[in-house]
Amino acid sequence: MPRAPRIEYEDACYHVMARGDRRESIVHGDADREIFVKTLGEACQRTGWQVLAWVLLDDHYHIALRTPEPNLVSGMGWFQNAFTRRINVRNKLWGHLFGGRYKSVLVEDTPHPGSGRRSVYLETLIDYIHLNPVRAGLVDGSQRDILSYPWSSVATGYAKPPSKRPRWLAVTEGLELFGERDEARGRRRFVERLDEFARAEGAQCAGATELEGQTLQSTLRRGWYWGSQAFREQLVERAGKTIPTDRDRDLRSTGLFRRHDEQGAERIIAEAEAHFGLNLEELKQPRRGNLSRIAVAWALARRTSLPQADIASMLALRTAANVSQQVRRFEALHEQELDPGVRRWKRKFNI
What we know:
Blueprint: E1 12-19, H1 30-47, E2 50-56, E3 60-67, H2 72-91, E4 103-107, H3 120-130, H4 132-135, H5 153-158, H6 171-177, H7 184-201, E5 210-211, E6 214-215, H8 216-222, E7 225-226, H9 229-239, H10 260-276, H11 280-283, H12 292-303, H13 308-314, H14 320-332, H15 340-349
Parallel strand pairs: 4-7
Antiparallel strand pairs: 1-3, 1-4, 2-3, 5-6
Helix pairs in contact: 1-2, 10-12, 12-14, 12-15, 13-14
């Protein structure tokens, strides 16, 4: 069976999902769940992603995210590899954590004519993700209290004020999709609406809405977009080729699959050259007591999804293992141990 396409472009919106290998658990307790949230946050920091909704269950996760830059593939590669590595180390496991590659479905995100509101497709996706614990039977009782499930963006974001939620969670935008403001009253009504939705539709159907003959479950099984026919045609045009049927999914030959992580690295290198007053060849030279090269490697590792082997090659740091070791050491240094230039550089990227 041909693989679903990975179409990337600026400000794209995706529904991403991955399930455990052989449908086995990907988390084994709350400490593992905290690792998931932490790793997702780091992925957003590296890529600039804005998460509109997420939910984590024992054997799979769902995320609705926006990519200001076309970097879904490189970012997801880093996220899933880092999460797998961390879970395996913590639980003394080895091998694959996920069953095959992750699913990604492009989501229509265009205003309704004359309303100024976003597409109903994105709204439906956010509800679908937030109501996942209801469908899975993890929220008990006739009241369907969504907030009783702690591992989603409802409890960790939509129910909290800005100062108490992750900065990578785009709650304000999510609330605006439903006509609510990011204030106590608007956040309360958003949660109450989900509870009422769950009570009205029942555990099996909550959030599983059908639009134009599509459901979110069907798009994850065999689709590549969630939206109208007009949205599909826009994606085909963007891909630069005709897709005769939904079975024609091989878009990998288009120009939409450029390595945008490399573009991000080039920007950081240019900033480093200006900041330290050195060109790349000079930055690559090891100098006793001068941490500028390691500081640049740290910024590349922290703010891009570039593989560490590529960082090693770019900065003449020999191996990926050496990059990892040097970055960890640099991360642990206190500000008073750094010269002023490196200190300012670290503050700039230590967001």
